[in-house]
């Protein structure tokens, strides 16, 4: 014989509560109007669409961008700043315009095509021979400036800045003339030495010795004394430094 199913009191109470809740919800829905139900349905549909779009955007973060997005290139403005690659190293030293003006590192603003390397090596002796007449003008200019600086009446008429400029012109012109004379003397000495010995090439050390001897012979008496005194002091200083070094090593 089959046994009858047995129900407890708790099961019966739960079934009664579910039935009462379903009846209450049906009563509340039946009391709502048709317009309220349609508005609620639209709101639910919109929320579903928004959730789907958010899930698509989150999933596309790791996806490759579309080709259409890459094909659209924005036109750059001509006044926009220039763009450079980050892989290109930036120089640590920047060129500031006007910073090196008046120094030996300044770039030459003027270029003389007569001394351009594209036309071959410059023949210094020929250039010197062609423009040697400029030494006379330089010597006259030097004498005028020196006489102006020695005259106290003329000095009182000039400002301190003008006196400094004239002094600089006199010193630079004199040093330039001396350098040109030494260069001419060196060229003549080497030329005579090549004629006497028949050598085509002269060592740098031999050139230095020949030029020193020629300069010493062309000096006046006072100039020779000054040169000899300067060499004597230099030699004495070297000997004293060597003596101090040896004495210090021996005392240790």
TrEMBL record:
Region (Disordered) location: 1-97
Source organism superkingdom: Eukaryota
Compartments, record wording: Nucleus, Nucleolus
Keywords linked to the UniProt accession: Coiled coil, Nucleus, Ribonucleoprotein, Ribosome biogenesis, rRNA processing
Keyword Lipid biosynthesis: no
Leader sequence residues: none
Biased composition (Low complexity): 21-40
GO BP, one annotated term: maturation of SSU-rRNA from tricistronic rRNA transcript (SSU-rRNA, 5.8S rRNA, LSU-rRNA)
GO cellular component assignments: 90S preribosome; nucleolus
Keyword Nucleus carried by entry: yes
InterPro entries: RRP36
Biased composition (Basic residues): 67-79
Pfam families: RRP36 (PF06102)
Biased composition (Basic and acidic residues): 42-52
Function: Component of the 90S pre-ribosome involved in the maturation of rRNAs. Required for early cleavages of the pre-RNAs in the 40S ribosomal subunit maturation pathway.
Subunit structure, as described in the record: Associates with 90S and pre-40S pre-ribosomal particles.
Protein family: Belongs to the RRP36 family.
Protein name (database record): rRNA biogenesis protein RRP36
Native species: Pichia angusta (Yeast)
């Amino acid at each position: 014989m089959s046994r009858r199913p047995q129900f407890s009191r708790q099961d019966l109470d739960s079934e009664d509560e579910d039935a009462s809740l379903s009846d209450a919800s049906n009563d509340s829905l039946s009391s709502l109007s048709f317009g309220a139900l349609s508005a609620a349905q639209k709101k639910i549909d919109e929320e579903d669409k928004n959730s789907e779009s958010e899930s698509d955007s989150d999933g596309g973060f790791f996806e490759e961008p579309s080709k259409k997005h890459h094909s659209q290139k924005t036109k750059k403005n001509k006044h926009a700043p220039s763009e450079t690659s980050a892989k290109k190293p930036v120089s640590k030293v920047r060129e500031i315009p006007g910073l090196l003006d008046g120094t030996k590192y300044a770039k030459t603003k003027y270029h003389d095509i007569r001394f351009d390397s594209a036309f071959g090596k410059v023949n210094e002796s020929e250039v010197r021979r062609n423009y040697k007449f400029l030494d006379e003008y330089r010597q006259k200019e030097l004498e005028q400036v020196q006489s102006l600086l020695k005259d106290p009446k003329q000095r009182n008429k000039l400002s301190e800045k003008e006196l400094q400029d004239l002094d600089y012109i006199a010193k630079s012109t004199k040093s330039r003339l001396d350098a040109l004379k030494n260069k001419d003397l060196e060229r003549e000495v080497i030329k005579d030495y090549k004629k006497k010995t028949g050598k085509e090439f002269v060592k740098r050390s031999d050139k230095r010795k020949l030029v020193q001897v020629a300069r010493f012979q062309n000096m006046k008496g006072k100039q020779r004394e000054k040169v000899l005194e300067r060499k004597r002091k230099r030699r004495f200083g070297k000997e004293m430094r060597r003596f101090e070094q040896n004495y210090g090593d021996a005392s240790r």
